[in-house]
């Protein structure tokens, strides 16, 4: 099944609500043909507002524009943008069967009956729900509803597929299975897609690129790898995955903190913080290591173990993931080192 | 501890039985009086008769037909004006729609007598209108409209009409297509509950109608008041029996509809 | 067609009906209430003329007593019906709600059958004591009639609220040692307060404005709606009838609005 994905350009789209709140500062970005972009952020970060503007459910503030290929669609309502959308609550029509729901968009487009039936059958097959065609919506499970919602959005062969937290309503195991399926689907269809989620694993798995949003602004755009390994702000660093932080200062080429220090090639700063991931830490002898901390708790996880270390200050513990060989006792002093390329100063 | 509990229960049962008796006994008396040859002697002595029912039909059949006509006309107006408005009120919560919602609910808070008086002062001099049953229809529409609007709005809220409509819009449906294909079919339980309510209330409406009617436009409750004041008890009872026969099936249907569609038909507190 | 225009089109019929047949007449009613032949304003007269003032106070007293009695009875019955399961329960509840749809005149007739000249109470008291007790055509009769149509409405609200009550709350109170009386007083009744306020206000407003029952029972009982009716039809005192209507409407509206503010949603109704 082919789809013709559009190139999408969002230009200076902001949104101020009538009560004066700025849900979205003017943001700009482009989505390539066939690319999946995941918009990630905590609730209230503006990701859903951005999606609704792209969809046409909401207009941007004056000055903003949305382009599909070379067409300015800013003033088109959603029904004339030829997109497909999967809603968080699915928004399946209870007065129609599964088949009726999936066929609805084609009916609106006056696709002849025979072709309509063929295309509905095709999409239902693709989503593995052909046997549900005559079911009423209230007879479906959550996972089945999700599939119907996706089938309905895809049946019209949209230029752009918009997914608004499509898996949030499902339980964890189902969510993971459908995540894998959606990933395969998006790759095989080559459709342009925007996927809004607050779940970072969904964003990292599904997004060719991830847009991390914070307080109505784009915090960072990049591949999953970039976002995880090269976060450009404290917010991104701490929002994605587990991140350790040691506060201190930089003087004459050395980072100094309450738990130790090391040489860095950075300009002096009265206040600086070193960031690193639990898996980048090397455990060393305390006397020769740059940082020295006390073991507070040990979680043995089988293949690995996770240590919670604490320095003199009462801040957050330092988390360290290590192999299962050595055994650590709470109260023991350990030394840690982090390779220069894994250490970020933000 | 157990003793105080069972005391409460016994007291509750006693009160409940008394309240039930209070509610049911007069209705039963009324029904039996309507088919009793002579109420003063009692049904056992004087026997069962349908004379009074025949008499009521001869005297008051036209009020029954007028009540049915007004009720149906009220239903048509509340459907045509109320259902689309309920949709707009739900879909666009704003200052203007909020004000409109408040205004249409006002006839519930203001006694019917006051509304009737206002209508007479405003339109009483337009002879043809004043003398026609349209004048009564106007009052009934004002009084029953909030029930239709609220009943539909309750279902719209329960079904999350906004998202459903966005779903239809994302598939290319125009505002009219969304209203026709998605909103109307799914709001049917609310329309049904509202319709039953409107017809029931219209048939029983007295406060407005008494002021608005003319000797040639008497509805059933107006005729009832007339019979209570001037007819013997058996005829008044037989006439009341007609009212029960018209309204009770509607009430039963309403209960069935409420059970069928769960709580969607609106809270119990907003009835009448 | 834009969404905006489509919506205006949909709301237009109702807007037109409301404007022409409610707002305009109510405006005229308001203006008419000032058009008087007397020197003093009609509103001032309501509060200074003994006849109006006494009927206002009597109506208020009647409405308040009706509300309190209805709340007490309906709560007692409602709590029982909400918890106990017995055969025929749903049919019983359905039957108890029927009086909701009875117009005031029919309710008045029910009171006549109960306590009128040929009424049940009169027959029984005549057989027992030899004296026939007849109270249908008095304030007591009116109170009985108001209870008749108020009880079902409050009953429904109380039952709906009681059924939503988390039974774990009562279990928790009992686990802390509370006796059934305490559970009722400290947990159940406080939780039902919003329902009491909401349904109590409806009950009060309905009792204030009710006309049909008083009309059927007697023209001698001077409750406010009856006074309005006689002012308009017999005395042709349009200004006073209008002023009393506005006054009465304001009282019921304020009661319902207060209840909506303090008792949550779901408040409406009066007839």
How many helices of chain B? 13
List unreliable stretches of 5+ residues of chain B: 263-272
Would you give the CATH topology of chain C? MetI-like fold
> What share of the residues of chain C lie within helices?
over 70%
Quaternary state reads: heterotrimer
| CATH evolutionary superfamily of chain B | MetI-like
H and E order of chain C: HHHHHHHHHHHHH
> If you compute it from the alpha carbons, what radius of gyration of chain C comes out, rounded to the nearest whole angstrom?
23 Å
Instruction: Specify the CATH architecture of chain C.
Output: Orthogonal Bundle
What profile does the largest beta sheet of chain C have? none
CATH level 4 superfamily of chain C: MetI-like
Report on this structure.
The complex is a heterotrimer of chains A (346), B (272) and C (271). Chain A is of the alpha+beta class. In chain A, α2 (98-108) packs across α3, α2 packs parallel to α4 (142-155) and α3 (113-126) packs across α4 (142-155). In chain A, 25% of the residues lie in helices and 33% in strands. Chain A folds into 2 domains: 8-238, Rossmann fold; 245-345, Beta Barrel (OB fold (Dihydrolipoamide Acetyltransferase, E2P)), CATH 2.40.50. Chain A has a 6-stranded mixed beta sheet, sandwiched between helices. By secondary structure, chain B is mostly helical. Chain B has a single domain (50-270), classed as MetI-like (MetI-like fold, Orthogonal Bundle). In chain B, α3 crosses α7 (133-158), α3 (51-91) crosses α10 and α10 packs antiparallel against α13. Chain B starts with a helix and ends in a 12-residue tail after the last helix. Residues 263-272 of chain B have low confidence and may be disordered. Chain C is mainly α and 271 residues long. Chain C has a single domain (49-263), classed as Orthogonal Bundle (MetI-like fold), CATH 1.10.3720.10. In chain C, α3 (50-83) packs parallel to α7. The longest helix of chain C has 34 residues, at 50-83. Chains in contact: A-B, B-C. At the B-C interface, α1, α3, α4, α5 and α7 of B face α1, α3, α4, α5 and α7 of C.
């Amino acid at each position: 099944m082919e789809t013709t994905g559009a190139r999408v350009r969002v230009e200076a789209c902001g949104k101020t609500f009538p009560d004066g709140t700025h849900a979205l500062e003017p943001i700009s970005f482009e989505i390539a043909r066939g690319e999946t972009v995941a918009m990630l952020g905590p609730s209230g970060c503006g990701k859903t507002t951005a999606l609704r503007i792209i969809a046409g459910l909401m207009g941007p503030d004056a000055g903003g524009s949305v382009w599909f290929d070379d067409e300015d669609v800013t003033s088109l309502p959603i029904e004339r943008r030829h997109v497909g959308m999967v809603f968080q609550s699915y928004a399946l029509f209870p007065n129609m069967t599964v088949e009726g729901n999936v066929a609805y968009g084609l009916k609106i487009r006056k696709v002849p009956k025979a072709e309509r039936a063929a295309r509905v059958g095709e999409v239902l097959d693709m989503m593995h729900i052909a046997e549900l065609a005559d079911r009423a919506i209230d007879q479906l499970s959550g996972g089945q509803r999700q599939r119907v919602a996706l089938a309905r959005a895809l049946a019209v062969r949209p230029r752009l597929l918009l997914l608004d937290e499509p898996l949030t309503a499902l339980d964890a195991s189902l969510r993971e299975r459908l995540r894998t399926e959606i990933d395969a689907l998006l790759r095989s269809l080559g459709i342009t897609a925007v996927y809004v989620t607050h779940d970072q694993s969904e964003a990292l798995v599904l997004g060719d690129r991830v847009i991390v949003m914070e307080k109505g602004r784009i915090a960072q755009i990049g591949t999953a790898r970039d976002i995880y390994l090269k976060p450009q702000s404290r917010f991104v660093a701490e929002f994605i995955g587990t991140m350790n932080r040691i506060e201190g200062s930089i003087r004459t080429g050395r980072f100094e903190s309450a738990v130790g220090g090391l040489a860095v090639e950075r300009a002096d700063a009265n206040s600086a913080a070193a960031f690193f991931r639990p898996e980048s830490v090397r455990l060393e002898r305390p006397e020769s290591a740059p940082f020295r901390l006390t073991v507070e708790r040990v979680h043995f996880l089988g293949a690995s173990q996770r240590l919670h270390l604490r320095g003199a200050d009462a801040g957050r513990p330092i988390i360290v993931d290590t192999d299962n060989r050595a055994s650590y006792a709470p109260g023991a002093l350990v030394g840690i080192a982090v390779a220069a390329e894994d250490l970020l100063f933000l | 501890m157990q003793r105080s509990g069972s005391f409460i229960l016994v007291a509750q049962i006693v009160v409940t039985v008394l309240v039930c008796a209070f509610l049911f006994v007069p209705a039963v008396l009324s029904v039996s009086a309507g088919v009793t040859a002579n109420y003063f002697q009692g049904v056992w002595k004087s026997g069962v008769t349908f004379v009074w029912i025949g008499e009521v039909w001869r005297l008051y059949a036209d009020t029954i037909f007028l009540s049915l006509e007004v009720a149906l006309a009220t239903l048509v107006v509340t459907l045509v004006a109320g259902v689309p408005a309920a949709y707009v009120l739900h879909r666009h919560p704003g200052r203007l729609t909020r004000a409109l919602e408040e205004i249409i609910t006002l006839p519930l808070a203001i006694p019917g007598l006051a509304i009737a008086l206002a209508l007479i002062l405003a339109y009483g001099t337009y002879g043809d209108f004043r003398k026609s049953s349209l004048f009564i229809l106007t009052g009934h529409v004002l009084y029953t409209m909030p029930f239709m609007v609220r009943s539909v709005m309750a279902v719209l809220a329960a079904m999350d009409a906004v998202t459903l409509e966005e779903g239809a819009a994302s598939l290319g449906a125009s505002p009219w297509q969304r209203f026709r294909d998605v909103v109307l079919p799914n709001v049917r339980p609310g329309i049904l509950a509202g319709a039953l309510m409107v017809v029931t209330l219209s048939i029983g409406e007295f406060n407005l109608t008494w002021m608005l009617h003319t000797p040639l436009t008497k509805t059933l409750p107006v005729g009832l008041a007339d019979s209570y004041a001037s007819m013997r008890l058996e005829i008044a009872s037989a006439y009341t029996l007609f009212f029960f026969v018209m309204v009770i099936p509607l009430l039963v249907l309403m209960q069935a509809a409420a059970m069928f569609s769960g709580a969607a038909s609106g809270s119990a507190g907003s009835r009448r | 067609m834009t969404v905006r225009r489509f919506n205006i089109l949909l709301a237009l019929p109702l807007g037109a009906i409301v404007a022409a047949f409610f707002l305009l007449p109510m405006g005229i009613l308001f203006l008419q209430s000032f058009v008087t032949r007397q020197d003093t304003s009609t509103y001032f007269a309501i509060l200074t003329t003994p006849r109006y003032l006494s009927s206002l106070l009597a109506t208020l007293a009647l409405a308040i007593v009706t509300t309190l009695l209805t709340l007490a009875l309906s709560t007692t019955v409602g709590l029982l019906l909400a918890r106990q399961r017995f055969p025929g329960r749903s049919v019983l509840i359905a039957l108890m709600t029927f009086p909701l749809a009875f117009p005031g005149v029919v309710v008045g007739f029910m009171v006549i059958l109960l306590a009128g000249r040929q009424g049940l109470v009169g027959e029984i008291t005549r057989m027992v004591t030899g004296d026939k007790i007849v109270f249908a055509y008095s304030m007591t009769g009116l109170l009985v009639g108001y209870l008749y149509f108020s009880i079902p409405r409050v009953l429904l609200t109380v039952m709906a609220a009681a059924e939503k009550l988390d039974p774990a709350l009562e279990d928790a109170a009992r686990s802390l040692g509370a006796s059934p009386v305490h559970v009722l007083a400290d947990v159940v009744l406080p939780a039902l307060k919003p329902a009491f306020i909401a349904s109590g206000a409806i009950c009060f407003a309905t009792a204030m404005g009710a006309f049909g029952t008083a009309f059927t029972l007697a023209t001698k009982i001077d409750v406010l709606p009856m006074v309005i009716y006689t002012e308009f039809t017999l005395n042709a005192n349009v200004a006073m009838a209008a002023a009393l209507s506005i006054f009465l409407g304001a009282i019921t509206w304020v009661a319902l609005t207060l209840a909506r503010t303090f008792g949550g949603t779901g408040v409406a109704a009066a007839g």
